[in-house]
Design a protein that fits this description.
- The chain has a domain at about 20-50 and about 65-135: Four Helix Bundle (Hemerythrin (Met), subunit A).
- It is built from seven helices and two strands, in the order αααααββαα.
- The chain has helices spanning about 5-10, 20-35, 35-45, 65-85, 90-95, 110-135, 140-145, and strands at about 95-100, 105.
- It has a two-stranded antiparallel ribbon with strand order 1-2.
- The protein is elongated, with a radius of gyration of 18 Å.
Length: about 150
């Protein structure tokens, strides 16, 4: 079995999902223009105007060598969590509503929880993509794994 590192980074467990390296670029995009931006937008504007839509293809300019993206993500995530903490959000702040351009009213709490769920979801995609690279090499164990993306 010979798998080059690039094989792993470009793996997809389904044709229409992001590869691990694309997901990393998507994480970077989110750190720049999504989660903290939306929280601040709600705190400033409430539900008087929708926050700008998220560009689902906007991750492409963030593509770079993996080591660079990981380093940048680490710096940005640490900074964003620090800035989130500095907002000193109260229970009342977390209940404040904003206006999502596609789904309507959302709260600060929902944005924060979605931020975490989003990251967990994409980490799962990455794990599925990695495990899909091993499927051809595990033989009859495929029957025992009972993983939908493997069958």
């Amino acid at each position: 079995m010979e798998l080059r590192p690039l094989d792993w980074l470009e793996a997809r467990h389904e044709p229409d999902v992001m590869s691990p390296i694309e997901a990393m670029a998507h994480f970077l995009q989110g750190e720049d223009v999504d989660w903290l931006f939306r929280i601040r937008f709600i705190l400033e504007h409430g539900d008087t105007e929708p926050f700008p839509p998220f560009d689902m293809a906007g991750w492409k300019p963030y593509m770079a060598p993996l080591n660079n993206m990981l380093h940048t993500f680490d710096e940005k995530r640490v900074e964003n969590l620090k800035l989130l903490d500095e907002l000193g959000l109260t229970t009342d702040d977390c209940r404040k509503q904003g206006l999502h351009p596609g789904i309507g009213p959302v709260t600060v709490e929902q944005v924060i929880c979605t931020w975490a769920a989003h990251d967990i979801y994409h980490m799962g995609m990455i794990c599925k993509s990695f495990s899909s690279k091993l499927k051809p090499h595990i033989g009859r164990f495929n029957e025992k794994l009972n993983l939908p993306h493997m069958n």
